[in-house]
Amino acid sequence: MSSLSNKRIILGVTGGIAAYKSAEVVRRLQDQGAEVRVVMTPAAGEFIRPLTMQALSGNPVHTELLDSDAEAGMGHIELARWADLLLIAPASADFMANMVHGRADSLLSAIHLATPAIVAVAPAMNQAMWAHPASLANTATLQERGVHIIGPDAGIQACGDVGPGRMQQPDSIVEAVGKLFKNGQLAGKTVVITAGPTREALDPVRYISNHSSGKMGYALAQAAIEAGAKVRLISGPVDIAAPERCQLTRVVSAEDMLSASLEAAAGADVFIAAAAVADYRASTIEPQKIKKQGDQMTVSLEKNPDIVATVAAANPALFVVGFAAETQDIETYARDKLVRKKLSAIIANDVSRSDVGFNADENEVSWIDADSSKVFSKRSKAQLARDIIEHMVSQHKL
Ligand code: PMT
User: Fold this and answer.
1) Inside any domain, residue 185
2) Which amino acids bring their CB within 6 angstroms of ligand 1?
């Protein structure tokens, strides 16, 4: 099976003579089994007609950011979420600068900002423009942010100059894109992921919970899907949308999460516990709203089951990854949890900071297993999730 089979790709076309080659890119991507939607900047329309791209892709071409009809269909945020890959080919010097500055002045640049997908660009510009320190600095910045740069080729250019700057040939672009998906790495595997908080009811209107948003667990689910796994996501109450191609089970309490996890983990290959499970629940859930009782009140709590430890004990062949959310002595506590809960690996997460951990869009963690450890510096949770999945698969030969 091709690594692009069933992948959803937004092909962003920006203004440049190489735009005519993007029609061929659409064809080649489709030949590999990808579903392609085309987004064109206004300048791209000067070089190739949207109708051509529409006929080739079999889907409407998206051009306008502020188009109420388009937004009522598949709006820019929906498109951004839909994609597994945003491929910008050709990427003009201007558009790359636009990406560096995080502008959102066109539909394509807004999608670039909003998408959790892998981003790749195939630059196309005059050789002197490509060699300019500003273009080189922009390219380096994009690379540092995890954007994949495909090409450019060197040779005779449309303007008659000779040198690097030509967009790579469609076949080479599609080959490079195929390599971006560490696809097949988890093909045929089932991955179960817990995410979000649990809520432990005190009475019909109150509960104990925490600040988990589900972003880390949901990003892991998306990354495992991208790696070809069948994903079961068991989620506490959160406000974010689940990846489309996973089997979602919504739960509320730790006990619900335990039953769903045990059911899903039987026969699975990997279990990742990113959920922030409440360690305690009320000894009794009052059937009616608890009335005010003077200046102080005491709630009796009892211990919740440990989901990840129970799942690991019940499934000795399962590869089980826990998270350790700590505010101090992070590595020591994480190692203790790795051993005590009999996990295959643990991901140590500093939750004392507001820029990472709970509810943040970025995270910084350390992977720790019996033989090794690896620090993942601060990056988006989407990128971190891909890096964790990649590390898990390559390190442990899953
Ligand atoms: O959801 P986000 O806002 O994106 O935030 C992400 C996160 C900070 C919640 C996540 O990265 C994280 O660190 N999750 C683990 C939170 C946690 O409960 O850590 P812990 O150290 O208390 O628990 C250790 C491990 O045991 C965890 O894998 C946890 O899921 C599991 N556990 C804990 C208690 C319990 N009763 N059952 C469990 O399975």
Assistant:
1) no
2) 194, 196, 212-217, 254, 273-277, 279, 304, 306-308, 322-325, 337, 349, 351, 357-359
